[in-house]
User: Fold this.
Amino acid sequence: MALTKAQQEKFRQILNEKRKNLIDQAQRTLESDMVLSPDDRFDEVDQASSEYMQAFSFRLRGRERFLMDKIDLALRKLDEGIYGICEECEEPISIKRLQARPEAPLCIQCKEAQEREEAVYAED
Ligand SMILES: [Zn+2]
Assistant:
């Protein structure tokens, strides 16, 4: 079952809030650690979409970076009207799962199958 417009807008709000929190977090890291590595900077500059994000995105590391990418992807899917559809099996992701993890790209069945294969990112 597709999400209603109202549900989609609710998830957009939640995702934007999560995104903002991640950026705030990165900003605090930036402020407490002003020593920049020039190599680091040039590696990732191409991927950033704006100057504002360039300042922060290369400070995001590991799990935060991973989460940010998923939030951006989920927001893009909202724009395209395909949010809440599993990337693997193309079935709707349950609303309960989206409420727990609005950035989740996979339904719970596909996620569990993936975890059995990889066991790397245990949490999505
Ligand atoms: Zn699936």
